[in-house]
Specification:
single chain; alpha+beta; 2 domains; five-stranded antiparallel β-sheet; 15 helices; about 40% helix; about 20% strand; disordered N terminus
Amino acid sequence: MAGEREPFNLMMQDGNAARKLKKIPVKVENSDNSLYAAHPKTYPREVKGRFQTLRTLAVYALLGLYYVLPWIPWDGRQSVLFDLPARKFYVFGLVFWPQDFFYLALLLIMAALALFFFTALAGRMWCGYACPQTVWTEVFIWMEKWTEGDRAKRMKLDAGPWTREKILRKSAKQVLWVSFSLWTGFTFVGYFTPIHVLANEIVTFSVGPWEAFWGLFYGFATYGNAGFLREQVCMYMCPYARFQSAMFDRNTLIIAYDEKRGESRGSRKRGDDYKAKGLGDCIDCTMCVQVCPVGIDIRNGLQYECIACGACIDACDQVMDKMEYPRGLIRYTTHNSMAGEKTRILRPRILIYGTLLLAIATAAVVSLANRQMLAMNVLHDRHPLYRVLDDGRLENGYQLKIMNRDQVNHSYAVEVEGLPDMEIEMDPPEVSVPGGEVITVSARVTTYPEHLHGAGKDIYFILRTTDGSDQIHKEKGRFLGPVGR
């Protein structure tokens, strides 16, 4: 129990005599220590300024893209659609197939390098302006302000008893939160199921079980992360907060409090000769703490919880303006700059990250620009592996899967090379494949057995367009014969 422990006697032995010391009460802070302490709710205060304007624009831009893109038509289909049943992924005028997994790998590598590059250069600006957790949390806080009022009103409402007004305000907030979460889940599923079809299924109560599950799941995740957990996701769940220090150095741009200028803190009236009183520019108004979405005090130094949103800068600048002090008591700066040393922007890690990012991005663009619009898979028939025809020739059967990656129809013919006197027969001899489709055709390849040395030899199928588009694709196959020839 908290309180004071029973007094006890301290005995010390000094030579041959024992001396009894007076009874000393020992105060115990709390013997019922818990391994987990509930995180206090953060009530961020509204602030205006240049950085908050940038954050607001980022929210509108990013959420606008997320919610609007599925509704934009493109060549008779949805502009961005990941059609998993058909195994085709539409991104505006591009169509990606499972064989294009290479581009997804490049995209992930570019995303990682971009994160390293911008973190080493400008700290956690990704977290403050573009992270989905930050963006959706900002919208949920807006809805909370609309229904419950500013910071002081929200704190008073939560601390007060349940009244009719409190029930109405809390209910209105939950209605907005739940509706927005469900709309978010619906939009998420709309990237995998055509959103117009999905909307019609919802209206007619004919939505499939998987669409319903993922829509509700993603909506619940949005509600939980952005409405309930909020800054706790950034502080406790996000791994980026833990390993960001590995990418920081003394030249990394961070948000910092100018301790030399601000200390000692203390309140004063505008116009007072505060320097004569031994005070710095910080008036200890705690506005920087009140506007922080994660509830930290930036004056205690750089902390891993800081998401570099710039709210404390805007708040402090407004206070400095009112006090007629210079701005920049809290600002974007570097450790070197704070120490009076020169800041180096171009340094080895920046150059390495930037060079790798530029090289991989260039390779991806060049590869996309030169990507073949046709492809073919060659599958050898298993039964039988080969046939001996009446004229003595050997015959192998194949299944050719011809893929037209273009969005217009094309006609194709197939040739074969690799052994003398080879002939190929297909039914039909010329194949027409609609745009974005795959057609399987049967093919038979024959040659004389004396040209085959051993049990088999590699041959090549050449796929050519016959409609004047001048496209060609070469695929390896295997021609088999009797063992021991």
